[in-house]
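Standup notes, structure subgroup. Blocker cleared on the 2-acetamido-2-deoxy-beta-D-glucopyranose input:
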Amino acid sequence: MRLLLLSTLLCLAHAQLHKPKNVLFLVADDLRPQLGYFQDSADFPTPVHPRMHTPSLDSLAKRSFVSRRAYVQQAVCSPSRTSLLTGRRPDTTHVYDLESYWRKVGGNYTTLPQYFKQQGYRSIGMGKIFHPGPLASGNDDPISWTDPYYHSEEEQHWTERKHSWYAVPEAERQAHPLPDDQIAEHAINKIKELAKDPSQPFFLAVGFHKPHLPFIFPEKFMDLYPSDRVNVPDNIYAPRNMPDIAWSKYGELRSYTDIEELHASGDINTTLPIDVTRDLRRGYYSAISYMDHLLGTVVDELMNQGLGDNTIISFWGDHGWQLGEHGEWCKHTNFELSTHAPMMVSIPGMTDAGMVSEKLTEFVDLFPTLVDAAGLPTMPLCPADSTKTELCREGESWMPLIRGDGGQWKDRVFSQYPRDNSKIMGYTMRTDRFRYTEWVKFRDYKPEWQKLFGVELYDHKIDPEENNNVAAAAAYAPATKQLSAQLRAGWRSARPDDPRSVRYDADAWPIFQHL
Ligand SMILES: *[C@@H]1O[C@H](CO)[C@@H](O)[C@H](O)[C@H]1NC(C)=O
Ligand SMILES: *[C@@H]1O[C@H](CO)[C@@H](O)[C@H](O)[C@H]1NC(C)=O
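Run returned:
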């Protein structure tokens, strides 16, 4: 009898152990790592604002593996999302703009939700996961999902607004819920439905639109950021010795009527008036707190339904955002503020105590990380030409970092941004200490390194705001030479277990205080 009981218990334990883990895949749009949680532990970004009110993400972070230094592969929506969702970099997806569909211009690559679907998961998407648009993402990529894709019915109503920000009175919100309100509600209903069939594993992707422009949020969130407490950046000038090609005229922001009326040119070393800068910052922060609130309601429902113990939760924002630093706005650049974004993964039983990593990571790492965390068949590394390979990765699973296996990890990470209709490409690389960028001629999806349009080097040890390009400084010549070789060798040579891996020591160069 006791033996029978024991074996039943073992059997149950076994079933529990092998029950596939669900995934709640949460995404925010245009969110730089401006969360209360980051402020507690670190210096990012320069503290020119009141404390952020992001209790939901702060509490998720406390039971997650948080990468404090995660970098996107290209700082604009569709290229960044396509890269993360296919696990490949822009030079493999060939998506550098908001129109192209990787299955047409790159290859028929399997996406993250599609892979879970192939493994027997129910894959459900809503809001902004792929970049929506005419051709873009082939209308949310139907192959990726088992259920019909959901968009808020109120999206049209709210995109008609042409002011850069708007604090919505409660009565108006009642009449016309905001798109993210509806996305959160839809997610909550789905979770209730999914909880009724615990044997069916799910991959539930919830993509919030905020804090993307226009900054529209229920008005009460603005009370968190009183005008007199919102500071403006103290570095409103372009970096010293910055090549012009690095600059973006933030046309996206200037297309809103209130900004257009200012006749701002977007030129280097011009910026928006101080009161406008302050209002935009308040709007951005308020939109973040609003998104955080909705995200909290979704995570709470998951817990209420008893799914918390068996659901992996990932969160990321698709790239950073410039809020007037350097006089710059929006994304569309290779600067730290554009390429650095929040990313965290909560794995029940593994990350419950919370882990903060200072290792450099990349958005292409998330696909293999979630696959490993869920215990699905591991993804192979992409071959040099992966055009015909449906499933592979160009990033590294975080599992060795999460398990604390020791071993080596990549010491440099890569992003890129095109200019001039992709006839020029800026390749940028972050090491522990430096950001190094080369803008070069780009043809047939390949850089022509000898045709240079500009070089940038920022020494984060003494210049964390990237105010001073020292690429041409004699004192940095040896470091520049090494960094250039690393950048041109590309991401593969940064992989610790790559046979050609070369560990450079540019980070160990002495600090030059006086230039
Ligand atoms: C792309 O791959 C999917 C399976 O992942 C397949 O169903 C589809 O037919 C393929 N499309 C093309 C154009 O090869
Ligand atoms: C922008 O202003 C900064 C600070 O005055 C100066 O160092 C830099 O050279 C200027 N850049 C251009 C392109 O005018």
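Discussed briefly. Residues 274-304 form the longest helix (31 residues).
Next: hand off to the docking folks.
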